[in-house]
Specification:
heterodimer; A: mainly alpha; about 70% helix; globular; B: 6-stranded mixed β-sheet; 4-stranded antiparallel β-sheet
């Protein structure tokens, strides 16, 4: 494969020995190490192999896939909307998943596969609804995002209503789901499906990334360079929605990963290497996974044998580190 | 002179809403010509430029546009991207983009023809041509309006196309860079037969190198007329006043260049 340096080149002045492909390899190695580490560390110190295989392996792999999917989804939406604050929850997908999952929990379906099923159904219904609302392929994606924000608000109201009417028995489970947690992931089949989606999204994105990179110059410029802009934009919306839907249907509404991870990459790596989407998108997919594996590891070990919801941990780690980056790079005005 | 015909526009009508911006335009551009497009705000300059660049929604247009004898709808986006570069009126930059990224990205149409090293050299040369090589690694958000315009023009040059379609390339530029830009366009057009089609508000620059002019005279509420032809024939105070809606005076500088100024 040829090295097309038009996707942004290494800056000779600020290079400091960083290169993209070794960095990417480093991220892959780091991801494997973090998964291995998370498998070994746990509340039961001398855990036997069957425990690791049955309980920890699905959970750790699910954390990796969920984190990667959320980060890629956020990264895509940030490029698409040209807004550094965009995240998967703006499409209303998380909201739809919440309504679906809480509906199942209200009817006493806690602990069954129907919770994830309901969440998935909710997320997909929101997508179909959005598609019908904005009138399909020919319209501009900003219409879809606007509709998405509205649907998300609506879903938030329905969620509150459900909690208000919930029985005392179902209430704790519902709150727990809303905080986002991975402890319901038990079956390796679900994890396999999730990893499959993660890998497909990653591969499709690597294929589309050069054109997504050009979209950063604005739709008109990209169009004049021969990019099929409407197709790329809709692929970005669909992939972002699909990733977010699969992630939240398994793990509940874990916020913040999609916002934090691409920005960590931008403020550290991209500052030196340029905003190359052919690197940023796959790297988000990996770093997001690593981030959530670590967060989940904390969530289940910090106050062991009890567990914290991982959504709380992502925010607790994420918010200060993001604010730190923002403060340290005040002079870097390109956010 | 037997020049090759590059662009043919026939029976072209442009409407937005109920307004007819340009009615029945017949326009032929030959290789190496430099066209300026004159008209008041909202006359349809940008829309016309986008239309011939193949970037305008087909709903608002009737008529034929042919590039090198081939109907525009039949030209693939890849073909067009190697034929013409389009300079936006308001160039955009994404999150974290630097000047060099913008210029490198605009060489995308040639990704299979060139080696990696050439892209960087070519990008730096283009930036140098527009006098912004010192800003190569500056973030887009830190550039001033004129600097952005110059980076965007450098990106158009880097696209290495036989045709440049520029939407108000001189906007935001200081006087010195306006004049050097025009000199550059004239040189490129004379040495490499590059064709330039640019919309313009600085009427004092017309005499500095454009060979032909297309003046849109449409007013609000009437079907859009136009004046077309070589600069010596159509660009005069009467016609300029018709197009721009303001009295115009003609003057000759000491070096013999004809300039137009608002009265």
């Amino acid at each position: 494969m040829r090295d097309f340096s038009i996707y942004g080149i290494e800056d000779p002045v600020y290079l400091r020995g960083m290169k993209k492909s070794p960095l990417f390899l480093g991220l892959i190695v780091f991801a494997m190490l973090s998964i291995a580490g998370a498998l070994l560390i746990g509340s039961v110190a001398n855990a036997d192999l069957s425990l690791i295989y049955q309980l920890r392996l699905p959970r750790v792999l699910a954390a990796f896939a969920v984190g990667g999917l959320l980060a890629m989804s956020g990264c895509l939406l940030q490029v698409l909307t040209r807004n550094p604050l965009a995240e998967s929850s703006v499409l209303g997908v998380s909201g739809g998943a919440s309504v679906g999952a809480l509906g199942v929990l209200m009817m006493g379906g806690a602990g069954t596969i129907w919770v994830a099923g309901g969440a998935w159904l909710g997320a997909i219904s929101v997508l179909v609804l959005l598609w019908l609302l904005v009138g399909g392929y020919a319209t501009h994606p900003s219409r879809l995002l606007l509709a998405g924000v509205m649907v998300a608000t609506g879903c938030g109201a329905i969620t509150s209503l459900m909690i208000a009417f919930a029985s005392d028995l179902a209430m704790p489970g519902m709150i727990h789901w809303l905080m986002g947690d991975l402890d319901s992931v038990m079956s390796l089949e679900v994890v396999g499906a999730l990893l499959g989606i993660w890998l497909s999204v990653l591969l499709i994105l690597m294929k589309l990334a050069p054109k997504i990179h050009l979209l950063q110059l604005g739709t008109d410029k990209a169009l004049s360079l021969g990019v099929d802009v409407p197709f790329i934009q809709w692929m970005m919306v669909l992939l972002a929605a699909l990733s977010a839907a699969s992630a939240v249907s398994v793990a509940g509404s874990i916020g913040f990963v999609g916002l934090l991870v691409p920005h960590i990459l931008r403020t550290t790596v991209m500052k030196h290497l340029g905003p190359d989407q052919t690197f940023l998108l796959p790297a988000s997919g990996l770093l997001g996974g690593i981030f959530l594996v670590f967060s989940d590891m904390f969530a289940r070990t910090v106050i062991a044998p009890s567990q914290l919801p991982v959504g709380v941990i992502t925010a607790l780690i994420g918010v200060p580190s993001f604010l730190f980056l923002l403060a340290r790079l005040r002079q870097w005005s390109s956010l | 002179m037997t020049q090759e015909t590059l662009l043919e526009v026939q029976n072209f009508t442009l409407t937005i809403g109920n307004r007819v911006l340009i009615a029945d335009l017949d326009w032929t551009v030959k290789v190496g010509e430099r066209w300026c497009l004159i008209g008041r705000n909202g006359a349809g300059k940008s829309t016309l430029l986008k239309a011939i660049a193949g970037m305008q929604n087909q709903l608002y247009m009737h008529g034929n546009i042919r590039w090198q004898g081939k109907d525009l709808p039949l030209c693939s986006p890849q073909e067009l991207s190697k034929l013409r570069a389009y300079g936006e009126q308001f160039p955009q930059g994404g999150i974290g983009l630097r000047s060099i990224d913008v210029v490198l990205a605009s060489q995308w149409p040639w990704r299979y023809e060139k080696e990696s090293k050439e892209f960087l050299d070519h990008a730096m040369a283009s930036l140098a041509r527009c006098d912004v090589q010192h800003l190569a690694y500056a973030p887009w958000q830190s550039l001033s309006g004129g600097e952005r315009q110059r980076v965007s023009l450098a990106a158009c040059f880097a696209q290495s196309t036989p045709v440049l379609i520029l939407d108000e390339p001189t906007s935001h530029l200081d006087i010195h860079h306006q004049v050097t830009l025009l000199e550059m366009l004239v040189n490129a057009s004379k040495s490499c037969q590059q064709t330039v089609i640019a919309s313009l508000h600085e009427i004092s620059l017309i005499g500095r190198g454009f060979t032909h002019a297309l003046m849109l005279t449409g007013k609000v509420g009437e079907a859009g007329g136009y004046l077309i032809g070589p600069v010596d024939e159509v660009v005069n105070p009467t016609n300029l006043e018709k197009s721009l809606g303001h009295p115009i005076l003609e003057a000759t500088t000491a070096s013999g260049v004809k300039v137009f100024i608002p009265a």
